[in-house]
Design goal:
Radius of gyration: 19 Å
Helix content: 25-40%
Number of strands: 15
Largest sheet: 7 strands, antiparallel
Number of helices: 8
Oligomer: single chain
Shape: globular
Structural class: alpha+beta
Distance between the termini: 25 Å
Length: 279
């Protein structure tokens, strides 16, 4: 399908009401004064505080997630950027206080195919990204006064595809929170692994990082999500990875970027590093 064709299909989806895209009966994001909304905020806030993450399972209706994945697939094949790189858990060449051969600095391979926000205009994922009730809900559960969509025309919303052998390897996030929406689960592999609060702002815990990377941390946890699930993850101090995908079905996931200040953008060099182009 051409980009024009998929955008036309998405355009029809965009004219529908949000309740046709999202399960707002289970997750009443559009009803901030309701008891159900208050209970949802309380549940997610508690889970973020204790586990470092919360999930809204199948927030995006199953048929919408399925169609979005189908529409995105040909764009992935023709227009995506293959982001492949070797990196350590910090995405830095040098870390103060660590010798170059310290086991916390061992490198891994990450590979995925990425579409940017300017390639997703009119999609249900972009519709959700720009929806103010979602911004309000995320700010509440993160303990923020307000959240702003990212100003970067490429990075604000990305969709990433992981095929056989591709993986997102161990890393800490630069942002305090990460918001993702799974559009298609792989048939095998592609599990999300994480270790809650391995470091703090005061203690980088380099030896603990080394134990994690050498498979000696008993507190690593693994989770597999269903398509349509919105995940909010506190990744700045919780290292995580996606294990290599196996089998013919790709893992397709959207990453929604918000900040507690307006106007956040990547530099041109960062855009080129992540997407192969700048805007």
């Amino acid at each position: 399908m051409s980009q024009k064709g998929s955008t036309a299909r998405w355009g029809r989806c965009h004219t529908d009401r949000m309740k046709d895209i999202l399960d707002l009966e289970t997750f009443p994001l559009d009803q901030p004064e309701s008891p159900g909304y208050a209970a949802l905020v309380a549940r997610c806030s508690k889970e973020l505080a204790t586990d470092g993450m919360c999930n809204l399972h199948r927030l995006l209706r199953a048929e919408v997630a399925d169609q979005a994945a189908k529409d995105i697939t040909p764009l992935m094949q023709s227009e995506s950027f293959n982001h492949a790189r070797r990196h350590n858990i910090y995405f830095k060449k040098n870390v103060p206080g660590l010798a170059p051969d310290h086991p916390a600095l061992q490198e891994f391979e990450t590979s995925n195919d990425t579409l940017c926000a300017d390639q997703l205009a009119g999609s249900p994922v972009m519709m959700l990204y720009d929806w103010p009730p979602l911004h309000r809900f995320l700010a509440e559960i993160m303990g923020k006064e307000v959240l702003y969509p990212m100003a970067d025309p490429l990075a604000r919303l990305n969709v990433m595809s992981y095929g056989p052998g591709q993986a997102l390897n161990w890393h800490f996030d630069r942002a305090e929170f990460t918001v993702t929406l799974l559009l298609q689960a792989p048939s095998q592999g592609g599990a999300f692994e994480y270790r809650t609060d391995l470091r703090t702002a005061e203690d980088p815990n380099h030896d603990g990082v080394a134990r994690l990377l050498t498979g000696q941390d008993p507190d690593v946890r693994q989770m597999s999500l269903e398509a349509g699930t919105l995940n909010v993850f506190r990744g700045i101090n919780t290292p995580h990875r996606v294990t290599p995908v196996e089998g013919p079905t790709k893992r397709i996931i959207a990453v929604l970027s918000y900040f507690d200040r307006p106007g956040v953008r990547f530099s041109a060099d960062e855009q080129k590093g992540f997407y192969g182009r700048s805007a």
